[in-house]
Amino acid sequence: MNRILVIDKPRGLTSHDVVARVRRITRVQKVGHAGTLDPAATGVLVVLVGKATRLAQFFVDLEKRYRGRVVLGVTTDTQDSEGKVESTGDVSGVTRPQIEEAFAAFEGRTEQIPPMVSALKRDGTPLYVLARRGEVVERAPRPITITDLKILSVEMPEVEFEMTCSRGTYVRTVAADIGERLGCGAHLGQLARTAVGPFDVDDATSLDELAGALGDTEGTGYSMYDALSFMPEVRVTEREEEALSTGGMIGIDPGRLGDDVGNFVRLSADGSELVAVGRRVEAPPGNEGDAAVPDKIRIQPVRVFVEPL
Fold it and tell me: How confident is residue 285, by pLDDT bands cut at 50, 70 and 90?
């Protein structure tokens, strides 16, 4: 079984717990996920089974969409509702315009200091392990992009919102930073990931549904080829497939990609089975062969799924 499963993660399970359950249900040992969800969060977790685990990098980089609730006036040591209360603040003077201004300040490209309670590692040790020991270490700010941060409702002291953001964005840190900007403190009260790239929670499968398939999980989720629908596609010839199977570069006419853009392309012989994922590369001077012809696009395979012919 080589599939991409879009799982609707329930509250209370870690992403590792979900992977372990999928492993038991599918009876496939090689299972991974593309983007951690906190135990308290629910929603879309992209799970990769079998050879699909080799595609993880392409799903991790996809934009994520969330729906959640910020609770103003209370900070916690984990920045969410699972932590211990650290402080309380007065929200009586906080107005809707002030909240809107605070939210707007976090849209676009910004920097974020990751929380101590996170899976990031320091000298091989996850930060959350250090946090449990009472240790606090310096963390360098990291660039993030929030393309959309929309307020859905305000019922003080709670603010419901929707956010679309880049990989590596800690939504609970955004909530805490908004509270700090407002001067009253805040934490993330609830969070659901509603989409990862093209994968929407409405199309996700619960673990119970997956288990209820009674072993017929091959038809659940997406094939490796279909799951990469966000990439431009190229149909390859037998000769090109043979070159790709041994790690060789190919050169294609620009018309075979149409108006599609992107650094990575999915390559298939029949439009259903994934031959390889390739990356566009610049042609070095002095090379010969199809891949070096100036009016062709050079494709270097980065993940190959066919054996040499």
Answer: very low
Statement: residue 132 has pLDDT above 50: yes
Q: How far apart are CA 121 and CA 106, in angstroms?
A: 25
pLDDT given for residue 242 in this prediction: 93
C-alpha span between 14 and 153 (Å, rounded): 29
Boundaries of domain holding 38: 3-62+198-224
**Closest C-alpha to 166, from 150, 190, 183, 142:** 142
Question: Where do we find the tokens 């062969």?
Answer: 289
- What does the pLDDT average to over 138-163? 94
Residue reference for tokens 């599609």: 260
Asked if 132 and 25 sit in the same domain, the reply is: no
Residues with catalytic annotation? 38
Domain contains 204: yes
C-alpha–C-alpha distance, residues 81 and 79, integer Å = 7
> What are the CA-CA distances from residue 122 to residues 15, 115, 127, 130, 133 (Å)?
21, 13, 6, 9, 14
Domain presence at residue 309: no
pLDDT of residue 169: 94
The band of 29, judged by pLDDT with boundaries at 50, 70 and 90, is: very high
SS (H, E, C) 237-274: CHHHHHHHHCCCCEEECHHHCCCCCCCEEEEECCCCCC
Work out the average pLDDT over 111-128: 78
Q: What percent of the chain has pLDDT over 70?
A: 92
Rounded (5°) CA angle 47-52-54 = 110
Backbone dihedral angles phi then psi of residue 161, each to the nearest 5 degrees:
-145, 165
Nearest to residue 18, comparing CAs of 198, 215, 218, 206?
Answer: 206
Q: Tell me, what CATH number does 8's domain have?
A: 3.30.2350.10
**In which element (H, E) is residue 304 found?**
strand 297-304
Q: Residue 29 is which amino acid?
A: Q
